[in-house]
Write a structure and sequence with these properties.
alpha/beta, Rossmann fold, GMP Synthetase, Chain A, domain 3, five-stranded parallel β-sheet, globular, disordered C terminus
């Protein structure tokens, strides 16, 4: 089977899709990047030429078929091109998280045996050089941005523009070999290797084949009718499977345009300027955007506040029904149209969502209130359920069947089943090949028939076929009295409040539930400014009595909501404290994709947990932290512990 073929069904590699796009959509814009405030564009034809030059340049450096190429940096066209160029020469791209510290990078570089590293700038080059003595397999480091690197030893350090120039100059020597390598690519060869976030231990290299990526991209793109005219904003970590599927898999299958923002600081501005038609964000991004909206409304005048409240109340009532094409009265349609003119339209424009035709959120559960808020504005936001091991897509929500309490029906080609213990299993064309150098974990996760254990507990609704996820299977437990304990359900209730950035709930095997809370510094800081509350640090603001009172009100309101769910009413939070520091990936408390490492948090703050269940009113603690430059330090604090009203109580509980 050859790589290049006229029929789409015979396209069996990303380089083959690139060649198809250059032929069929050559003049269409493939990539945009904002640099120095100006958008630059590359067509599919220009992209194919850039990728070819990188591939030839890598060959001039001695890259071999089967080599691993580490890619490190923020979302930039040249880094995406580098991944495709690596595939073109028969090598395997391994994107790394750009915010990972040198020690984390060392593990991945050593584990995959990367001979080549392509890094965005001096910061990433420095991390690689810092571990080069340990990771002895690294032979060449290629960089994009030359700033700060002039006086470095360039014997094994190369500028990307020089590598491309060398490739173009030497094309006659390598052209035939490059074509031979590209033609030799098979459907079941490795397309990319992506490392898991490592919530329970060392990250594992997930090997995904061309078949996994292309079949999944084809099926998921057809499910939502994605097309060449669509626009996406590529801002999520390149090491994350979602970005790879959206910005390479679906982008190359569908030939839509990938837009790279200038920096994380300009992301929201760039989002508004591009106005993507296809948009993905994890719940944290939607939560942050909603927080910013609520902060701005707090500063608005009385009339604007009234207008916002009246029309948003109406939007919540009829917006989702209008979006799903359901019957709505003429008066309600007229009132919604007025709201769109005065509130919803301007708000969507401010958020950058005016043109969104399909929006997705995944990674972890999103709070129903947050989800419904965006859909009430007329934004076609859906939930999907996926994993790195599935090439992302396990379930998707069809238009007209979008609900906040399910994650949809199986994606095309995906089979689902529920184990005896309630765990969700799937198999699909996107099911990963193996964990790299880890046959034991592969065997534990994927059985001989191809069924993969997700680690999540859930059930399939018999009447609709929709999948409902309860929580991580390992986190779902029982309270001491036998009632169900599902911490994520409670945490999402708490995180709906703009003032709460993160929450970690405990209670498995206990008599009652307790919680650690992280305040959102932006939201609470803005509130403090309006209320003339002075503070010098996150720690000082988090410990302020009025902040505690505010968070207590949120906890008690969440308890009233939880009490309405008969199955999970035992999960109400009885006692809580506000942590003196934000949970941080650098401190090992979260993954690079911002998922809480629950077990590590429980062990690290064991003294605080003991105080919550020991009836204390306060607790003194010392915590080790990692500063941005890698230095370690300690912060000390005395934290207040508060009791909260739970449904059925007439007052705050007395700690036993």
């Amino acid at each position: 089977m050859t790589t290049h073929a006229a029929a789409d069904g015979a396209l069996i590699s990303i380089p083959a899709l690139l060649a198809r796009n250059a032929r069929k959509f050559g003049a269409n814009t493939a990539y945009r990047e904002k640099e120095f405030g100006i958008w630059q564009s590359w067509s599919w034809l220009a992209t194919a030429e850039e990728v070819r030059a990188i591939a030839l340049g890598l060959m001039s450096l001695g890259i071999e078929k089967g080599d691993y190429v580490a890619i490190i940096g923020r979302n930039r066209p040249a880094l995406y091109w580098s991944m495709v160029a690596a595939q073109k020469v028969g090598a395997i791209p391994v994107p790394l998280y750009q915010d990972a510290v040198a020690e984390e990078m060392a593990y991945v570089l050593e584990n995959c045996g990367a001979r080549f590293v392509i890094a965005a700038d001096q910061e990433q080059v420095d991390k690689v050089l810092a571990v080069q003595e340990r990771v002895k397999v690294i032979e060449h480091v290629v960089y994009l941005d030359a700033r700060g690197l002039r006086k470095y030893d360039h014997s094994r350090l190369h500028a990307m523009k020089d590598v491309q120039a060398e490739g173009r100059a030497a094309h006659e020597r390598f052209e035939a070999e490059l074509k031979r390598r590209e033609d030799a690519i098979t459907y079941d060869e490795t397309c990319v290797m992506l490392y898991t976030s490592g919530t329970t231990g060392r990250p594992k290299g997930v090997v995904l084949s061309n078949r996994n990526i292309i079949e999944t991209s084809k099926n998921s793109a057809e499910f939502d009718n994605l097309r060449p005219g669509d626009e996406v904003l590529a801002y999520l970590p390149m090491a994350w499977v979602g970005d790879f599927i959206f910005s390479i898999g679906q982008a190359y299958w569908t030939a839509f345009c990938v837009n790279c923002p200038e920096s994380p600081d300009t992301m929201m501005t760039d989002l508004r300027e591009i106005g993507p038609t296809y948009y993905f964000a994890p719940p944290r991004v939607f939560e942050t955007q909603l927080t910013n909206v609520m902060i701005r409304m707090e500063d608005a005048g009385r009339f604007k506040k009234w207008l916002f409240r009246v029309f948003m109340d109406h939007a919540k009532k009829v917006g989702p029904a209008l979006l799903d094409g359901k019957q709505v009265s003429g008066w309600d349609r007229f009132k919604y149209a007025l709201g769109d003119l005065f509130v919803y339209g301007p708000l969507k424009n401010t958020l950058g969502f005016s043109r969104v035709r399909v929006g997705y959120t995944a990674g972890e559960a999103i709070g129903p209130e947050i989800f419904d808020f965006y859909r009430s504005l007329g934004i076609n936001l859906k939930q999907l359920y996926g994993q790195t091991e599935a090439s992302v897509f396990i379930t998707q929500q069809p238009d007209g069947e979008v609900r906040s309490d399910t994650v949809g029906v199986p994606s095309p080609g995906v089979e689902l089943k529920i184990g005896d213990n309630g765990e969700v299993f799937y198999r699909s064309p996107g099911t990963f090949v193996e964990y790299f150098k880890n046959p034991e974990s592969t065997k534990d996760t994927k059985d001989p028939e191809g069924w993969v254990a997700t680690g999540d507990a859930g059930f399939i609704e018999p009447e609709t076929g929709h999948l409902r996820i309860i929580d991580r299977a390992k986190d779902v437990g029982k309270m001491a009295d036998g009632r169900l304990f599902a911490p994520k359900y409670v945490e999402n209730k708490l995180k709906f409040y703009p003032n709460i950035l993160e929450a970690v709930v405990f209670g498995s095997g206990r008599e009652f539930c307790t919680a650690f809370v992280n305040i959102d510094l932006t939201a609470v800081g803005n509130w403090a400014e309006r209320n003339n509350i002075a503070y010098a640090s996150y720690q000082e603001l988090a410990g302020h009595p009025r902040v505690y009172e505010m968070i207590q009100n949120h906890v008690e309101e969440a308890n009233r909501s939880i009490a309405g769910d008969e199955m999970l009413s035992g999960c109400q939070v009885h006692r809580f404290l506000i942590l003196h520091k934000e949970l941080d990936a650098d401190d090992g408390e979260m993954t690079r994709t911002r998922k809480v490492r629950r077990r590590i948090v429980e062990e690290k703050f064991a003294d605080l947990l003991e105080a919550l269940y020991g009836g204390k009113d306060s607790v003194y603690t010392e915590t080790e932290v990692t500063y941005e430059d890698g230095r370690k330090g300690k912060i000390k604090a005395t934290l207040e512990i508060r009791n909260a009203v739970v449904a059925g109580d007439t007052g705050r509980i007395a700690a036993e």
